[in-house]
Amino acid sequence: MASQRDPRLDSIKASLMFLVVFGHLLEGIKSTAPLLSQIYDFLYLFHMPAFVFLSGYVIKDNQGVNYRTLVRHIIMPFITLSVFYELLELLINHQFSRYIRSGAPNWILWYLYSLIIWKLLLPIIMRLRFPLCWVLLASFAFSLLHFDGYAFGILRSVIFFPFFIAGNIARENQYFSLTRWITKSYAPAAGVLILIIGYGVSLYLDTGLLYGSVTNASLGYTPLAGIMLRTLYYLAALGCIYAFCALTQAATMLAQMGTRTLVIYGLHGPAVKFAFWPLIPNVHTPWQIIITSVTAILLTWLLSRDVAQKVFNSGTQWTGLLLMPRSYTESGR
């Protein structure tokens, strides 16, 4: 029997997905006004770290890997979306994307790529004493190296891994339990205060640092300054994760949408990149934020509908039939 979903977590995921879509829409216009750039950086401080955190939080068995589930629910969607994105690049721009030419996952698909790595490494890391400390040390060490952070999706996988491990720890650790903290009577008020502080912190963090794909040297940081700023980033992001969860966990009317975040995440990218970005710079600045917000709401809602789910499932099923052993594409018993 399938485990019962927690509607609070699905409500949080739906709210985060709106911010992800809004943030990607905002990327096309953030250079037109300083305030838009500041909002963009604030969102990037915590919205993807929050998704990574929740991805680790929902894993019950951290001592093994369910390879069939990994293949059916992550690897096949990743392959399907990668092919789809590259075909669109060929059709519209007449060449493969710069991502594939550097061996990196296409744009927003880095998350699915990294999620595969995190799930495979989780049982190994969780057998260590102080697992969060080890992945943080790896994050600091990799950020000190001199290399293209986008290549093969390496740096993002390492930089965001602490959030994944922290989420898994928060599931079992009574002191850091997410559900314990976000249901406190004072949680909403504390959440607002923490998010305000987080906004202030984001003003001092470079966008490249928030992306998690740029090394300290490329950002112009000394080793010590880079480590201090990344430590500040981790602390601020983690605080904002708990704060945002506290403020959105009661929005249960969004819970159904929260069960389809993979579909929304995977399909909104082309709509944003090839339809919205070319048009929105032509709109006068006072209207840009309004149009961006409304578009984010509509796009998030539309991609949560049954038809989008069916199209997405059909694509991944065809990928499974073409590439995967039959035992991995069946539903299982």
Commentary on this structure:
With 333 residues, the chain is mainly alpha-helical. The protein has one domain (7-329). It is 73% helix and 0% strand. It contains 17 helices and no strands. The chain has helices at residues 7-27, 34-57, 67-93, 98-101, 110-125, 131-143, 154-172, 178-182, 187-202, 207-211, 216-219, 223-248, 255-258, 261-279, 285-302, 306-323, 326-329. α2 (34-57) crosses α7, α2 packs across α12 and α5 (110-125) crosses α7. The longest helix is centred in the first third of the chain and has 27 residues, at 67-93. It is globular, with a radius of gyration of 19 Å. The protein starts with 6 loop residues before the first helix and ends with a helix. The model has no long low-confidence stretch (mean pLDDT 90).
What structural class do helix, strand and pairing data support? mainly alpha
What is the overall shape?
globular
User: Spans with pLDDT under 50 lasting ≥5 residues?
Assistant: none
Query: Tell me about the biggest sheet?
Result: none
**Mean pLDDT rating:** 90
Order of helices and strands: HHHHHHHHHHHHHHHHH
Q: How helical, in percent, are the residues? A: over 70%
Number of structural units classed as domains: 1
